[in-house]
Amino acid sequence: MGRAVVTVHPVEPGLHAQFIELWITHRIEGGTTPEAARRLALDGTLRTALQRNDIAAFIAFMDQRPVGYIVIADSTRSLLVVSPCVSVDMLYVVADVRRHGVGRALLAAAARYAERRGAEHIASTVPAQDREANRFFARIGFAAETVRRVTPVAALKRRLGGECPSQRRNLEALLQRRRDVRAAPSRLTRAEPPQIAG
């Protein structure tokens, strides 16, 4: 028996519900609770995003069953060098049909979209810890260009010493008190034992 045929269609209003169900499944696989995923999906943000001119989404079907999607956005490779690029924001394939050509079919749709937009490159941000996704993209010709790192603003400010002086003094005083408390028992054990006259 041959491989099932994969068809890919743009996510137009008639396919929004099927796309959203796949998106919910994707979020749940990523660790979001089903309730939170449904709440996020149904607040209208996804439908609004799908209507933007700089975003395109495609959904894949196998035997009339929705089995994956890709979301791509128009961008540039760099903020300083204007070179049209299409960026893969999300690529998802249902677990039981992976390695059946669904991801390739979705990326082929992205390549056709990029050509129509005059983009010379397609980029994808892949989580560093997702080895399977990294191997997939490497196999089909995506080369590592950068490592994107993310931090909360508050954490960065702390690391750079951006707190106000009073906050820093309070933190240093707290840390010194903790060091003093930890050191106190060891000072007692190192003290000379009392001398007994006799």
UniProtKB/TrEMBL annotation:
UniProt KW Acyltransferase keyword: yes
Superkingdom of this protein's organism: Bacteria
InterPro entries: Acyl_CoA_acyltransferase, GNAT_dom, YpeA/RimI_acetyltransf
Domain N-acetyltransferase: 6-162
Pfam families registered for this protein in UniProt: Acetyltransf_1
GO molecular function: acyltransferase activity, transferring groups other than amino-acyl groups
Keyword vocabulary terms for this entry: Acyltransferase, Transferase
Protein name per the record: GCN5 family acetyltransferase
